[in-house]
Structure formats: structure tokens, C-alpha cells
Amino acid sequence: MTARMHPSWRQAAFAAAALLAAGCGSVDRGTPVAGAPVACAGLASVVPAGTRLVLSETVPAGEIQLTGVQPGAPGSKAPVPAHCHVQGKIAERTGIDGKPYAIGFDLRMPADWNGRFFFQGGGGTDGTLRDAVGQLTGGGNTGNALMQGYAVVFTDTGHLDEPGPDGPYRFGLDPQARLDNGYNSMAQTGRVAKALIAAHYAKPPGRSYFVGCSNGGRQAMMMAQRYPDMFDGVIASAPAYRVPLASVQAVYDTQLYARAAAENALAADGRPVLSAAFSPADMKLLTTEVLNRCDALDGLKDGIVDNWPACRFTPEALRCTGAKTAQCLTGTQVDALSKSFAGPRDANGRAIYSDWTFDAGLHSTEWTRWKFGDARGAVPNARNITLMTGALAMVFSTPPTVTADFYGHALGYDVARDSAKVSAVDATFPLSAMQWEVPDSPDVDAFARHGGKMLFFHGVSDPVFSVKDTVRYLDRLRERYGERTDGMARLFTVPGMAHCSGGPATDQYDGLSALVNWVEKGQPPERIVARARPENRDVTTPGRTRPLCPWPKQSRYRGSGSIEDAASFGCN
After folding, report:
1. Is position 419 annotated as part of the catalytic site?
2. What is the pLDDT of residues 212-234, one digit of tens each?
3. Which one, out of 14, 100, 355, 392, has a CA that is 20 to 30 A from the CA of 483?
């Protein structure tokens, strides 16, 4: 079955056909394989054309050290069952920059297979071949899909990070590498993984799932839209589905917070020390006032803003009338917050990305480090400078801007004018980032026809991608499908949760079981119980549970029972 594309993508892809030497090809849900199972050591002889295995080994049950995680750090190891582990390369080639490229993949197939396939989504701009253990969404999950019996695959999306601060983004200078990172690598990896699974077990997967957060959430949406027959269900958590535009927002934020930081500290080069924009006490003051204004809107003061759409908080209430004190924010700080949460606009006055909501998790380190770095440090180290600005400059813009000075690039970026570069094309890059990177079409007809299900999760205190933007995508689905939307797509917002996890939130939940029960048993999730972990600072009681509710329903206290127990709450 050939891959189906949205019409606008199809036209753009025709114009760029010469770039698709690696090709999307035909992608299907798997073909039954006759004959005996192929042992792990023999899989190199049955790989699809254009694929080369570089590793094939049998791994005993135990623990493995995870790639790219500091040994000894929390979560640096993962439990694994006995399994067949292979790594390979698809479509090896030389880029226009003269550098070698290939779509790398890591595939693990458990001896005790449950008949299912799990595609583990990536993050950031990828570029690292991580271990396919089947990481679950939410915070603090100690298990993984591999331990549950899933065959799991992961891809580096067609490139490996190079040395140097700009190393993770140099692939953006190669047009095919951009397309591989955007969508082609997931399709090709899925095709090869299903073929190897079918050979190893002598039968194809009965069900296939794609699960990811951030860029992995974007990838999940991409698969449902571009390759609707490949997966039966997807989880898109905090989806980076409009990441080129969110990257413009990150640059805009950097400029705003740099102005606030300039009041407090300048580095030796004369630039503001971004981490001085707001102190931890300033941010705690902000969220305390948010709770004062909005916590009780759901009928219960419990440190959680469940009724966040009704919160009309404005930081103007905290503006100092005189000198700065511990009880107020400077005018520059207030202006920075107000403008950031309203979102940037282009030269025609149109919103570029999204507006944001004030929530109880804005003081958490998971929020502040993304926006302006760790206030205890002396060097600007916000992740939005390194990740978002680097990707915006070298991957999402046409033509790319080659730079390793991401802070300087952010400070000099003309948001109203330069944001048009994410939609630009030229002779070298005939597809813009908004075409190859952004899966924002509400047309999921083909995915729905074979019973595909989509689960979305998004933290209300996410500093990277606005929960309101994900809500708008669900609204667009509802405009197209009406009441049928609830039968194929559901969104669960998590008050207080930062990007993918963390913050003063009940951020530990089991989304995978909810998705599988929906796909395989026809049981749509009406509520998902989430738990607060001890690491979730400022939660009244670690271990408290709350129901996550399908949007637009919200958690409401029933009027009796412990407010630390999800059983005392309904979804209304």
C-alpha cells in the first residue's frame, strides 16, 4: 500500500522529487512471512534492499547502560528482557556537503514477544542512535515497552551529531537530511523494522504503535498523516508539530528576557546574562499570585489550576510602583512576561506561533532552564538558545544561517521579518520547513478509516510548546469531524506539568495501556489516573493522584473524600 500525502505535500514533493533518492517508497503494515523464524544471527541475510546491518547480538535479561546518559545518573540504566538486538543503516549516501549520511536504527525483539510493534519517538533534532527500549510518556516510569513484550525500534533520523556547538544542526545544510529528519527516516525505519520482525518471528506484528514526546510527538502526528496505514495508534505528547514557529517564539523570548536581565547583570562581552532575568524568588512570587487568582476557579484550592482556560491572570498585578522589592516585579520583567505569553507577530501583525497560559509550574527548574537558564549560573544557558535557536538558524530556515553563536543570533534576529524564512524555498531547498517538518493537517481520513487512534498529552506549564496550540489542533479536528473526533483523537492536559514531565504536577501516568485498550478493546479512555512523584517539588503531598480528563473535560472534586485521591474526583 503506497503512502498517502496531503495534497499540498504531494505537490511540493513532486517539485523536490530529485531530492528523494532515499525515497519514501511503499510503506505498509507488514506482509505475512512463510517459513521458519530467522535467528538473530541470520537476520543480515534477509534485510530489505538498501539496508545493512552493523550489529546483531542476543542479549540476556538484565540491565543495559543507556546511550547518551551519564553512567550513574538517575535513569541511566534500563531493565531489559532476553532479546535479539540489531542495528543497521538504511540508504547510505554522501550528502551535497560531502559528508556521509545514513538512516541509523536500533531494533530490539524480545524472546517473549506479545505480537506488537512499538516505534520509540525521538527528541530535539535527534542525531543520536539511542537504545530502543520503548520509553513511556510521562515522568518517572520505571518500566518500558520492551519489558512488556513489544518489539521496539528507534532511529537517529538520518544523521549523527557532529562535534562542536553547531554540530547537532549541520545536517540542515543537506536538503535530503532535512527531509529524512522531518519524515522519511521514520517511514523507512518502520518499513525495515517490520520486515525484520516478520522474518524473526515468522509473522508480522499484529498491532503497531508510535509513542513519543516533543519531537517524538511531532513524529507521531506525521506518521498518522503521511503514512496512515503504518500504525494503529499513536501517542503525541507535547507535540512539536509547529516547531519552526515555536523556535521563532523561543528567539523572541530570549530577546525579551535579555532586556530584563540587562537590568541585573552583563557578561564580559557586554551581553545580558540571561539567567539573571528572574530570580527563583521572582518566579515563585509569580506562581503564588497565579494560584491566588486561579486555583479556586475549579472549586477547590489544592495547588492545581484545573480550570486553566478560565484563568485570566495578568502579570500587571505584580508591577512595582516604586523600587524593586521581593513583593513585586520590575516594569521590564512584567513587560517581558506579558509580551512572551501573548506571542510574537509577523510584519503584517499576524500571530506567528501561539499565546500561552499562566500556570502553577512556571517557577520550576524545568520551566526556567528552558526560558532563561539556571538563575544560579553566571552564563546564559537556556536550552531554547542552544536547541531552538540552533535549529531555527541551520535547519528550519532557507537559506540556512551557519553559526555557532546562538545567543548572538537570537539577539540579532528580526522576528517580524526573518520568521518568513521558515516558509521560504530556493533551488537547493525546494521544500520549506513548514512543508517537510510540520504535520498540522486536520485531514486524518485514511488513518481513521482503518481504526487509527490518537492520544495527546500536554503539560499546561510546558515552556517549549504551548498547550493552547495543541488544543487548537484538536479544535481543527473537531471542525472537520464533529462528534466523530472523540472516537479517534483525545487530548489530556496536565496542569503544572512542564515539557513532557516535571513541575508541581501529577505527571506519572500510563498512556500506553490506555491507547492499547482503545485500539484493541474498543475502550476509549474516559479518565487516566496520574500520580505525583517525590521529585515533583511543591506538590502538597507526594503520591497524590488525580484523574487526567479528555479535553475539554476537567478534573472536579466530588465534594467528599481525600483531596489526595483520584477517586474523589470526576471528569466534568
Report:
1. no
2. 999 999 999 999 999 999 999 99
3. 355
